[in-house]
Amino acid sequence: QLQLQESGPGLVKPSETLSLTCTVSGGSISSSSYYWGWIRQPPGKGLEWIGSIYYSGSTYYNPSLKSRVTISVDTSKNQFSLKLSSVTAADTAVYYCARQVLSYSSSWYDGDWFDPWGQGTLVTVSS
Amino acid sequence: QSVLTQPPSVSGAPGQRVTISCTGSSSNIGAGYDVHWYQQLPGTAPKLLIYGNSNRPSGVPDRFSGSKSGTSASLAITGLQAEDEADYYCQSYDSSLSGSVFGGGTQLTVL
């Protein structure tokens, strides 16, 4: 079955750029039915959607993070990546990648959900 | 402050029924966008529990059910079991933000 795995440094210094990669196995990232998303969860807090990408490279981001976020895709490696610039302690969180299923009925966009999720990786911002 | 509002905690005894509410607004749930629910067991990644307001993925027990009305949605769990102790999150799409939004999460305690 489809599996996702996050990878990247667990410690990033303030003002630097956080970089993570999500490797997809058991299926193709080039499927036309899905987007691929990043979600984060600060310690002891709730979930926050960061942004999403289609295999063609089309992206959309959370407005609150848009100025600092870049998501890219490498279909040859079945991977997509997250870069978050100018990080502060507030960016310390478990970062998850997930497949995003978009749902339509007739010509109406019903919304989307995330399934499955990677196991998550903790990124700490500290000097 | 989350766009979708959930109670911070709920509790119930084994065998009982509990519900978790998720309140949104006219730009998300009230606009007709679907609501989805996730279960997060301690120390693990969230797992899809309900999609499209009331649909259960394969493998999710029918003790879990979802509904939506107006600007709110609810997750109901019947026949509570100790293994249901977890955090539960609702999620929808918001047209004002042009993206996905989550509730703040509800911690379920099985007494």
Can you tag this structure with a few keywords?
heterodimer; A: mainly beta; 7-stranded mixed sheet; 4-stranded antiparallel sheet; 11 strands; B: mainly beta; Immunoglobulin-like; 3-stranded antiparallel sheet
Can you describe what's shown?
The complex is a heterodimer of chains A (127) and B (111). The relative contact order of chain A is 0.30. Chain A starts with a strand and ends with a strand. Chain A has no helices and eleven strands. Helices cover 0% and strands 44% of the residues of chain B. Chain B starts with 8 loop residues before the first strand and ends with a strand. The chains are: A mainly beta (127), B mainly beta (111). The interface between A and B is medium-sized, with 28 and 27 residues. Chain B: InterPro entries: Ig-like_dom, Ig-like_dom_sf, Ig-like_fold, Ig_sub, Ig_V-set, IgV_Light_Chain. Chain B: It holds the Pfam family V-set.
What's the short version?
Chain A has no helices and 11 strands.
Indicate the topology.
The complex is a heterodimer of chains A (about 130) and B (about 110).
Chain A lengths: L2 E5 L3 E2 L5 E8 L8 E8 L6 E6 L5 E3 L7 E6 L4 E6 L8 E13 L2 E10 L3 E5 L2
Parallel strand pairs in A: 2-11
Antiparallel strand pairs in A: 1-3, 3-8, 4-5, 4-9, 5-6, 7-8, 9-10, 9-11
Chain B lengths: L8 E4 L5 E6 L12 E5 L6 E4 L13 E6 L2 E6 L8 E9 L4 E4 L3 E5 L1
Parallel strand pairs in B: 1-9
Antiparallel strand pairs in B: 2-6, 3-4, 3-7, 5-6, 7-8, 7-9
Subunit structure (chain B): Immunoglobulins are composed of two identical heavy chains and two identical light chains; disulfide-linked.
Organism (chain B): Homo sapiens (Human)
Subcellular location (chain B): Cell membrane; Secreted
